[in-house]
Amino acid sequence: MGRGSGVRALAARLGHAFTPHSHDSAGKTDSALESSSKGMRVLGISFAVLMVTAALQAVIVAWSGSVALLGDTLHNVADALTAVPLAIAFWVGRRAATRRFTYGYGRAEDLAGIVIVMLIAASAGLAGYEAVRRLVDPQDVRALGLVAVAGVVGFVGNEWVARYRIRVGREIGSAALVADGLHARTDGFTSLAVLLSAGGTALGFAPADPVVGLLITVAILFVLRDAAREIYHRLMDAVDPDLVAEAERILAGVPGVARVGAVRLRWIGHALRAEVEISVRHDASLIEAHAVAVEAEHRLIHELPRLRAATVHADPDGPAGADHHAVLATHR
């Protein structure tokens, strides 16, 4: 290697040491846009499938008067409508960070989750009301064969949507989309309950239809509980403890890291951000310590799933008895 190339190599190392790591810029932004586009596509297709399913069921509801099928239809409509706030959230989440919203707009997905919970609650309330009203004022159910077919149609439509949402949600790291897929899967099984209604009525058990309607309402309430818990965890910045353990393992394997301190992770939309503390040799130069921090950030971004950015704080490890944060003791 010539003298000129050696100087250029040294300059490149120093430039990298003093330049903020760029994994949160072009490459990561392109990945985020691609993820949002996939999310928008799956929402659009699943919305269309569920609305067609619900429309077919609604026609049979009007013809048959089945309150169990009505409850399932309302649930399917609510599930389809959850695509609307999620689509808005994906669109808003594409916006760049500003001086006011310095972390960007990814948390719009959490706000969409609150709307989804409200839609599920509304569908449970309406389905329960209709079931109770039918128990108090019984009515004949007609076209039992079509009611059974509608239940099967509801199951097939929901199961297809569930598989699609869950697969793409896991690909792009969207917990909201995965949760919505699991919601659709539960809807599919509630659609099968309509078969019980048709079968019970056909066997001469008149209350079968409103009773199954109440059972479907209970099933919706369980979905509501799980969805509310998922959104609560996101709003409270909860993460899977295994992710924290994995981040600690990655950091511990970085050359130059003497100890791993606090590790904090949070979801912002369908991407993770990290704030971590590491300790390096107390006699390391500023450039050496920064290089360790950059390598730690680099490995975290590449090895921790869905991590889009990390802030790494490097502390000196030693000398013995030294407290490098003494001035902050009263603020912690």
TrEMBL record:
It is a multi-pass membrane protein. GO terms for cellular component: plasma membrane. GO terms for molecular function: cadmium ion transmembrane transporter activity; ferrous iron transmembrane transporter activity; zinc efflux antiporter activity. It is found in: Membrane. One of its GO terms (biological process) is intracellular zinc ion homeostasis. The keyword Transmembrane applies. Keywords: Membrane, Transmembrane, Transmembrane helix, Transport. Gene3D superfamilies: Cation efflux protein transmembrane domain, Cation efflux protein, cytoplasmic domain. InterPro entries: Cation_efflux (IPR002524), Cation_efflux_CTD (IPR027470), Cation_efflux_CTD_sf (IPR036837), Cation_efflux_TM (IPR058533), Cation_efflux_TMD_sf (IPR027469), CDF_Transporter (IPR050291). Pfam families: Cation_efflux, ZT_dimer. The chain crosses the membrane at residues 42-62, 74-91, 111-129, 211-228. Residues 45-236 form the Cation efflux protein transmembrane domain. Residues 240-316 form the Cation efflux protein cytoplasmic domain. Its main location: membrane. SUPFAM superfamilies: Cation efflux protein cytoplasmic domain-like (SSF160240), Cation efflux protein transmembrane domain-like (SSF161111). Belongs to the cation diffusion facilitator (CDF) transporter (TC 2.A.4) family. This is Cation diffusion facilitator family transporter.
